[in-house]
Design a protein that fits this description.
Keywords: Endoplasmic reticulum, Membrane, Transmembrane, Transmembrane helix
Number of domains: 1
Membrane topology: Multi-pass membrane protein
Protein name: Jagunal homolog 1
Strand content: under 5%
Pfam family, one: Jagunal
Distance between the termini: 25 Å
Number of strands: 2
Shape: elongated
Radius of gyration: 24 Å
Largest sheet: 2 strands, antiparallel
Helix content: 55-70%
Structural class: mainly alpha
Main location: endoplasmic reticulum
Strand order of the largest sheet: 1-2
Length: about 180
């Protein structure tokens, strides 16, 4: 053993640090993937929040940014699983990660499913007749929102996948500690 003020322990040359415990690379990779997906989720949430805020407070005309669809309001609650996920990562808190996974289904995935069903008749009308009544910066609102939804579904699916893998690895680690 070495001390801060004394000599190095006998028989060592300072290169015997490789045996020390480290975080396994696959745990680090999963955490970094969850962090990256959380960042993309935050960007999507900011887009939806900006559209809701701008249209709600009449900051621009409704010709530029249309009124939000009903599914966008409950989707704003998807910031809660994002916060729980962010709180769970620094200290490997399993309970926050479980809360994040459950609330992601309720506040992220469920509004997207409802939104897909809510906007389907409008998309069908746009496809069949070429008529759009809502616009976002000159583009059909239903097209823009479906594009956001496609990205959001992929982000949330990957988030849930990596959070499940991370939860399994953390849970296995706590079970091994209890056995010792």
């Amino acid at each position: 053993m070495t001390s801060r003020v004394g000599l190095r322990a006998a028989g060592t040359n300072g290169s015997d640090f490789k045996h020390r415990e480290r975080v396994a690379p696959h745990y680090q990779m999963r955490q970094s993937e969850v962090r990256k997906l959380n960042l993309v989720h935050l960007l999507l949430w900011l887009l939806v929040a900006a559209q809701v805020t701008v249209s709600h407070f009449d900051l621009v005309s409704h010709d530029t940014v249309s009124m939000p669809y009903q599914w966008e309001y409950p989707y704003l609650l998807s910031v809660l699983p994002l916060l729980c996920s962010g709180l769970s990562l620094p200290k490997n808190n399993i309970s926050y990660l479980v809360i994040s996974m459950i609330s992601a289904g309720l506040f992220s995935v469920a509004p997207l499913i409802y939104g897909g069903m809510e906007m389907f008749p409008v998309a069908q009308q746009l496809y069949r007749h070429g008529k759009a009544y809502r616009f976002i910066f000159g583009f059909s609102a239903v097209t823009v929102m479906y594009l956001i939804m496609v990205v959001a579904v992929q982000v949330h699916a990957w988030q849930l996948y990596y959070m499940k893998k991370l939860l399994d690895s953390w849970f296995d680690g706590t079970q091994e500690k209890k056995k010792k």
